[in-house]
Design a protein that fits this description.
The protein is α/β, with parallel strands linked by helices. It contains four helices and five strands. The chain has helices spanning 28-44, 61-71, 82-87, 116-126, and strands at 17-23, 49-55, 77-79, 96-100, 106-111. The longest helix is centred in the N-terminal third of the chain and has 17 residues, at 28-44. The chain is globular and about 35 Å long. The relative contact order is 0.22.
Length: 127
């Protein structure tokens, strides 16, 4: 369910500005952020930008698939492992979102719910 082929290609990540969102299907603030992420993906995808959802759901792919369909998620979503979260310095609160520049460096960490406008301002500053 990562994309139409079911896989997330590393080429989708290389040399792109990324917004990586750790979420869970049962988290109300996570659900509330999804429309912003859909809009950001649409608005900036032609400028080398990619939103990626990282589900921390422990029940596997099925609830995530339903969540994606229900909310109309158009960006790739993958199941995150504990190692994935650790690779980002640990994810202790959800939602937690990382803005990553084209060099692969985390330039901003958002813990909790943030507005569309906040993301736009920060994305514009590094695109």
């Amino acid at each position: 369910y990562a994309n139409s082929e079911g896989m997330l290609n590393s080429s989708e990540l290389e040399n792109n500005t990324l917004l990586i969102n750790f979420f869970a299907t049962w988290c109300p603030p996570c659900r509330k952020e999804v429309p912003s992420f859909i809009e950001l993906q649409k608005q900036y995808q032609d400028r080398g930008f990619q939103v990626i959802g990282m589900s921390i759901d422990l029940e596997g792919a099925e609830p995530v698939r339903g969540f994606m369909e229900e909310l109309g998620i158009t960006y790739p979503v993958v199941l995150a492992t504990q190692q994935t979260a650790a690779d980002y310095g640990g994810v202790y609160t959800i939602p937690t979102t990382f803005l990553v520049n084209k060099k692969g460096q985390i330039v901003k960490t958002y813990t909790g719910l943030f507005s569309y406008e906040t993301f736009v301002k920060d994305i514009e500053s590094i695109l």
